[in-house]
Write a structure and sequence with these properties.
By secondary structure, the protein is α+β, with helices and mostly antiparallel strands. Helix 6 (about 200-220) packs across helix 7 (about 220-230). Strands 13, 14, 15, 16, 17, 18, 19, 20 and 21 form a nine-stranded antiparallel beta sheet that branches. Strands 27, 33, 34, 35 and 36 form a five-stranded antiparallel beta sheet that branches. The chain folds into five domains: about 25-285, P-loop containing nucleotide triphosphate hydrolases (Rossmann fold, 3-Layer(aba) Sandwich); about 290-310 and about 325-435, Elongation Factor Tu (Ef-tu), domain 3 (Beta Barrel); about 445-515, Alpha-Beta Plaits, CATH 3.30.70.870; about 525-665, Ribosomal Protein S5, domain 2; about 670-790, Alpha-Beta Plaits. A hairpin with a 2-residue loop joins strand 30 and strand 31 (about 570-575). It is about 25% helix and about 30% strand.
Length: about 800
């Protein structure tokens, strides 16, 4: 894409490690993408003539495309998540040999949650065993969307090498010269194609009919056009089909999926894909309004900017208070920071997506999450590892701010002129937040050991830099052993983190063996209520408060109400007396100790107590805590500050936990993974036996394509109704599955402890063919022998 748009002068290759977007040494060594990289280019290239007329197809007008290349490996799911959060459209690249893989389903489900319009590009059709038809059927069965086949592969003479594509939208065949750079494309209209390859000619007419018919099911407008053409799908204009495809995918529901074909290693099919990006994917103004929260309100950004959200400014010192609308009108720009990178030459780079207005060079940016102001001294437009200085970043664009000290992934940055750096914009504008980015919980743990005590501070600082870059890494210090624990999304994830720590940041530390995060749970019936009065000085101030707590096992989560809080798998319920007034009708609590303050203080105290269980110091899970606060007995005037209340709640919960431990009512839980293993028929038995006997796992299903995660609200699709051109190389018996042996899928639940290092074991069982993917399912209680072993 970069080569054809004139941005780079040579075509990079993943195998040679010469690509533009995979520029990290670790990426080049392994031949995979590890971190997402952003590139901006124009398609068609700007120098190829000026803007075309309004009536011309969209792909003839130069568009600015912000492209983000994301990883495909399961360990780097967070990179995909944070990129999806800020993008307007996506191209899903499938391997024509492997088809729809397990990780594809996972990312597809994430794109569904953000309602991202998508198109699919089936790549690697030049490889042996490539099966376009099978891949199309899998798109229907596994991604739960209707595949609209826009291009079909052109095999020379029907059985030869992959040479080009038949374009069902424009009714033409595109042929690429063998071994070229892909810039010279021969285009054949239907009549020329009939003489060149009659088989493809017949198939293309069939493909056009199937495309129009499937679009008519989703789009009324095209149905009218089709009826006006007397049901002749060949007579339907190409532009009408493009517009219809665009209308069908703009809502991001994924119910219709346009499919394109090619082989990027042979430079086939890339330019038509870029045309499709211009034609079908939305520009920033066509996306739904970004969601925001401001104060306690939720709404959309445009409602706020148009003054439809009722916000009341705080009373100002002057006589005249500014109106809410005039305050909003002063917002110059609003952006979301979605990625932070430490560049060895340029320092810290914060990638942002601007949602309204524009961010100008040297403007003061208010960070609404951290409540600090920072200056955007340099603005850059990134070209992977290279950068161009720019004066501003406009709405809808992706750019980089260099040198911010505090901003992190998911922070909202607001540009507001003449703002007080300490206080920020007037309230409630200083709390304006765009929808943040969800961070998945970590599953793999390893210990980081500094070589000497004097290195500890340095290693901690470097880890803080790493964490700011990649929030899906977590670091915590085990209080008992004093060990620094680094946790992440998988083995490869931690391996890369260690490489960066030692090679890039030159930290003097080693990484120890991986630890599993266990949990503790309450087993028996509830404990009696324990009332504790906390009474001692905190930072020179007297603190005194009381609280009672009891604890019991949790059966099912309760809904979040103002009195119950769901937190890390536990539920905290706060019981207050019916009336907060005494018999004389005087309020027992002062106005500064409002219900929200009281609740926050008590919940924080309980949370602190639940972070370390009484038995082995693991956090508690599936516990229900009842906190009872009675102002008549537990409130001691000014001494009962929020800090004292927190401490009282913590001590009360700890006392209840201690009693449960005394009654042998505390059990251990371990993380259990949902594992999907792909293997061929021959090694199925060995794997199932290994999982159920040696690893204490439960096999849930064999070869069941309906993955729980991707089973969306969309109805199941009858794959026999889906049109796909025949695969020339598929054998008649295994028509649905080309390639050696039948592919099978095993879905199982296995304890995480047994999955550490499983990849090597699986490869030896399957002769290197097996792959697996796992996600945290839940925590389960350890059985007798496993508990003993632990």
């Amino acid at each position: 894409m970069l080569y054809y748009s004139g941005f780079t002068r040579r075509i990079g290759d993943v195998d040679d490690g010469s690509t533009v977007t995979d520029f990290l040494p670790a990426e080049r060594a392994r031949g995979i993408t590890i971190q997402s990289a952003a590139v901006t280019f124009h398609w068609p290239p700007l120098h190829e003539g000026s803007r075309s007329k309004d009536s011309a197809p969209r792909f003839q007008t130069p568009h600015t495309i912000n492209l983000i290349d994301t990883p495909g490996h399961a360990d780097f799911t967070f990179e995909v998540l944070r990129s999806l959060r800020i993008l307007d459209g996506a191209v899903c690249v499938l391997d024509g040999v492997a088809g729809v893989e397990a990780q594809t389903e996972k990312v597809w489900a994430q794109a569904n949650t953000y309602s991202i319009p998508r198109i699919v590009f089936v790549n690697k059709l030049d490889r042996d065993g490539a099966a376009f038809k099978r891949t199309i059927k899998e798109i229907g069965s596994r991604l739960h969307g209707w595949p609209a086949v826009c291009q079909i592969p052109w095999w020379e003479g029907g059985k030869g090498r992959f040479t080009g594509v038949g374009d069902a939208i424009n009714l033409a065949a595109l042929k690429w010269k063998e071994g070229g750079d892909g810039k010279s494309i021969q285009s054949l209209c239907l009549d020329e194609l009939a003489q060149e390859d009659s088989g493809l000619h017949a198939e293309l007419i069939k493909a056009r009919g199937a495309l129009v018919e499937s679009l008519c099911e989703f789009d009324e407008k095209l149905l009218e056009t089709w009826l006006a053409c007397n049901d002749d799908s060949i007579a339907v204009p190409a532009q009408a089909i493009r517009d219809s495809l665009r209308r069908c995918i703009l809502d991001g529901s994924g119910r219709l999926i346009p499919v394109f074909a090619g082989a990027s290693f042979r430079n086939i099919g890339v330019q038509p894909l870029m045309d499709a990006v211009d034609d079908l994917l939305p520009n920033p103004t066509e996306r739904p309004d970004p969601e925001i929260s401001i104060g306690n309100q939720k709404g959309s950004l445009s409602d706020l900017l148009q003054g439809k959200l009722s916000i009341t400014p705080q009373k100002s010192l002057s006589k005249k208070s500014a109106s809410p609308l005039s305050l909003v009108a002063q917002i110059e720009g609003c952006a979301l920071a979605f990625k932070v990178v430490n560049d060895p030459r340029r320092g810290v780079l914060v990638y942002i997506r601007v949602y309204s207005g524009s961010i100008k060079r040297n403007s003061a940016l208010w960070n609404t999450n951290l409540h600090v102001t920072e200056r955007a001294q340099r603005l850059l437009q990134m070209q992977a590892s290279d950068a161009i200085e720019i004066s501003h970043i406009a709405a809808g664009q992706i750019g980089v701010i260099a040198g911010l000290k505090h901003a992190r992934t998911g922070d909202t940055l607001v540009s507001y002129p003449g703002v007080n750096p300490k206080l920020g914009p007037p309230a409630p504008l200083n709390t304006l937040q765009l929808r943040p980015i969800d961070i998945p919980p970590p599953v793999f743990f390893a210990a980081i050991e500094p070589h000497r005590l004097s290195e500890e501070k340095n290693v901690a600082e470097i880890l803080a830099l790493l964490l700011r870059e990649d929030p899906s890494l977590h670091v915590n210090v085990d209080e008992e052993s004093g060990q620094m624990l680094l946790s992440g999304m998988g083995e490869l994830h931690l391996e890369i983190a260690r490489d960066r720590l030692v090679n890039d940041f030159k930290a003097k530390a080693t990484m120890g063996s991986i630890e599993i995060s266990y949990r503790e749970c309450i087993m028996g019936s509830g404990t009696a209520s324990h009332r504790v009065v906390f009474d001692r000085e905190i930072a020179g101030k007297k603190g005194k408060a009381g609280c009672a707590a009891s604890i019991e096992p949790l059966n099912g989560l309760s809904p979040d109400t103002e009195h119950t809080v769901n937190m890390d798998g536990n539920v905290i319920t706060i019981e207050l007396p019916e009336s907060l007034y005494n018999e004389e009708g005087v309020a027992m609590l002062p106005p500064e100790l409002s219900f929200v303050t009281l609740r926050t203080a008590l919940v924080n105290g309980a949370k602190a107590a639940l972070a370390r269980g009484p038995r082995r110091g693991f956090p508690l899970h599936t516990a229900r805590i009842m906190l009872k606060f009675d102002p008549a007995n537990d409130y001691f005037g000014n001494d009962s500050s929020a800090a004292a209340l927190s401490s009282a709640a913590r001590l009360a919960v700890q006392a209840a936990l201690k009693e449960a431990l005394g009654n042998a009512n505390v059990g251990l839980m371990e993380p259990v993974m949902n594992v999907v293993i792909s293997c061929d028929e021959a090694s199925l038995g060995a794997i199932v036996h290994d999982l159920s006997s040696a690893r204490g796992g439960h096999v849930l299903s064999l070869d069941n394509d309906t993955n729980e995660e991707s089973a969306s609200n969309l109805p199941a699709i009858d794959t026999n109704r889906i049109y796909a051109p025949p695969d020339p190389f598929a054998s008649s018996s295994g028509a649905d599955r080309a390639g050696p042996g039948q592919q099978r899928q095993i879905t199982a639940r296995v304890p995480l402890k047994e999955m550490v290092g499983y990849l090597k074991h699986l490869r030896s069982l399957t002769g290197g063919r097996g792959t697996f993917i796992m996600s945290v399912d839940r925590f389960e209680r350890l059985s007798g022998p496993r508990e003993k072993a632990l």
